[in-house]
Every structure is written in structure tokens, then in C-alpha cells.
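User: Sequence in, structure out. Go.
Assistant: Echoing your sequence, followed by the C-alpha cells.
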Amino acid sequence: MVDRYEPAGQAQVGLSIGGLQLGLGNLGCTRTLGYRYRESLLPLARQAFVLGEASDSSGTLTVQKPRQQGDKFIISLKSEEQLVQSAQRTINWLLYGGVACGVLGVVALVVGLARP
């Protein structure tokens, strides 16, 4: 497994006139601090769920990231059912949290208006 962080190279801005060079720093040209690279191996003889675009344009059948923007690309050791259940649990917790924040907001509003 690979998990590493590499700082982004700083784009240096400079002014050169003849033999005179004046460095102006990066002048805020980039907001990227760096890049994180993560790579994992799939265990042999274990089932995996793969959602992507199948293509045989290279002569062999491959699964690749979909060309159309917004289409999903997933490789997971969890089954489709487990992924759906996990997403449903997340949606439920977000719903409960949203309702709780709404109720707390109404309570705070009532308390704030009730004070003279």
C-alpha cells in the first residue's frame, strides 16, 4: 500500500531583462499545497464490486473510468448491497441531524424572542 504526500512545486515568477534577473516569488499564483497519492492492492481470490465503463477498444476487455462527466466509477471489496446500506445509513443520520438542527434553531428563536 502506498500513502504519500508530495508538496506542490512553487511556480516562481520572475522578470528578466538582458542579464538582469529579478525574482518576484510566486505572487499567489497557486493555491495547491500538495498532492496526496494513495494506492491499495486488491487481495487475490476475493470478490469485488466494480462499477465503471467496459471497453474493448484496445483489443482486450477492460473496465475504465467512464468518459461521461458525472458517471460513477467504483471499485470496492464491499458488495453492492453493503454499499447501498452504508449510503442509506449515512442519509438517515444526515436527515436526523438536519431535523435536530432545525428543532434547536426553532427553540433558540423562541427563547431569543421570549427574552425582554
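User: And one key feature?
Assistant: The radius of gyration is 26 Å.
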